[in-house]
Design goal:
Elements: H1 5-10, E1 13-19, H2 26-36, H3 45-51, H4 60-64, H5 68-73, H6 77-92, E2 96-103, H7 115-134, H8 137-140, E3 148-156, H9 165-173, H10 179-199, E4 205-211, H11 223-231, E5 235-240, H12 246-254, E6 260-263, H13 281-294, E7 298-301, H14 303-309, H15 321-326, E8 331-333, H16 345-356, H17 360-372, H18 380-399
Parallel strand pairs: 1-2, 2-3, 3-4, 4-5, 5-6, 6-7, 7-8
Helix pairs in contact: 6-7, 10-11, 17-18
Bound molecules: zinc ion (ZN).
Length: 402
């Protein structure tokens, strides 16, 4: 059977790794910036693509600059709700049935909103889109699966006084603490807010994450936050092995107990190990990959994003995803940033199918991992029946391609 882009578009899919700030529609960014008097380098979609949201980026640092302008318009609850709503709609329109949207609440807090108000605003937008979608007749009749979502709250590995009002306040009240300690305090506070939002306020915040600059900002500073999440059954994902070597992934799974890893691009790069006490580097990465495979720690693979930020990847075929598949790791294909990486879930899966010559059985496995390893916010029984419904629908589409 030929796997076409159109077939993939119609299949039920997930996106478990997508940043709200990196996925704002450019038309909306312009709209909100004009309304709020925020300066942009250009007020046309084409102009923004030429100056900020480029086809390729020099490195992760330049890539991360794309978040500055969306960050500026995301300081108001109404704007956040609109951006979240549109993200869900864009996903629904390409067949995504389950979405986990992530963002760093502390980047938008401290001014008009506190952390809970940020979470509420995003939840409002996502839940509105969910309600609209699920009111369709075919969904009510059970002939196709409904749309659902979870929220992932990211702590930042690195921030300055200027990163947001929240961070400025934090630095000022902890003026005698080191920056590393302040980073740890911020993530611990975020984990506390997440526990409260989930447990007491019914917001589907399903996991915590750490994001931002990786090199020089190790996961270890966030161990208290992750321990708090663990004690409260909040799931844990970690951006690791994107701009730093396998040791970053090692820390994510051993120190933070990550259930999933964002990227893990350097998982097999033994040459990037910098710890001089590691004598047998190949053994180190083999053991690490074995541990991840055996524990079913799922890797959130973001092909286009990695191609844009990893200069050593010249061709998509060189991406370690091939090796991840060979080693039977649990992987799910994600977008990372729809706008910054100019992509969709359909495009990402289609890219994977073409570059790695995936069979329909492999495609089915990949899609199934997305549903199974999601942090679905309802009961285990409900999750099982939802996964089954989605995969039955998958079979139905595959059996009757247009
Ligand atoms: Zn990411």
């Amino acid at each position: 059977m030929k796997i076409t882009r159109e077939l993939i578009r119609r299949l039920p899919k997930t996106d478990l790794h997508v940043h709200l700030g990196g996925s704002v529609r450019l038309e909306t960014l312009i709209d909100l910036a004009v309304a709020d008097g925020i300066e942009l380098p250009s007020y046309t979609v084409q102009g923004l693509k030429e100056t900020v949201f480029k086809e390729t980026y020099r490195d992760l640092e330049e890539y991360l600059k794309c978040f500055v302008y969306p960050g500026a318009v995301m300081q108001k609850a109404d704007n956040l709700a609109r951006i979240a709503y549109e993200l869900a709609i864009d996903n629904q329109n390409e067949g995504v049935r389950y979405l986990e949207a992530r963002f760093a609440p502390q980047r938008y807090a401290g001014g008009e909103m506190d952390i809970h108000q940020v979470l509420d605003a995003v939840n409002e937008g996502l839940s509105r889109a969910k309600k609209e979608f699920n009111s369709r007749e075919s969904i009510a009749a059970g002939s196709e699966p409904p749309f659902d979502y979870g929220i992932i709250a990211c702590a930042m590995r690195y921030f300055t006084h200027d990163s947001s009002c929240y961070y400025r306040n934090l630095y000022s009240v902890h003026s005698h603490s080191t920056p590393d300690r302040i980073v740890g305090l911020a993530s611990f506070e975020l984990a506390g807010a997440v526990v409260k939002a989930r447990r007491e306020r019914g917001v589907p915040v399903v996991a915590i994450d750490i994001a931002g600059r990786e090199k020089g900002y190790p996961p270890i500073h966030h161990s208290e936050a992750y321990a708090l999440a663990q004690r409260n059954y909040i799931n844990k994902t970690v951006h690791a092995g994107e701009a730093y070597g396998p040791e970053s992934i090692f820390q994510a799974v051993t120190e933070l107990g990550a259930d999933r890893i964002g990227h893990a691009t350097s998982l097999f790069s033994a040459e990037l190990i910098s710890d001089p006490s590691v004598i047998d580097k190949q053994r180190y990465v083999d053991d690490l990959a074995g541990f991840i495979a055996d524990r079913r720690v799922t890797i959130e693979v973001c092909l286009s994003s990695n191609m844009q930020t990893a200069p050593e990847l010249h061709r998509i075929e060189d991406h370690p995803f091939r090796k991840m598949m060979e080693k039977r790791l649990s992987c799910t294909i994600c977008t990372d940033n729809r706008t910054v990486s100019h992509t969709t879930v359909t495009d990402e899966i289609y890219k994977a199918v073409k570059a790695f010559n995936l069979s329909s059985a492999q495609l089915k496995n990949l899609v199934a991992y997305g549903f199974k390893r999601s942090f679905y916010p309802h009961t285990y029984e409900q999750k099982r029946s939802y996964v089954k419904q989605c995969m039955d629908y998958f079979e139905k589409i595959i059996a009757a391609p247009v």
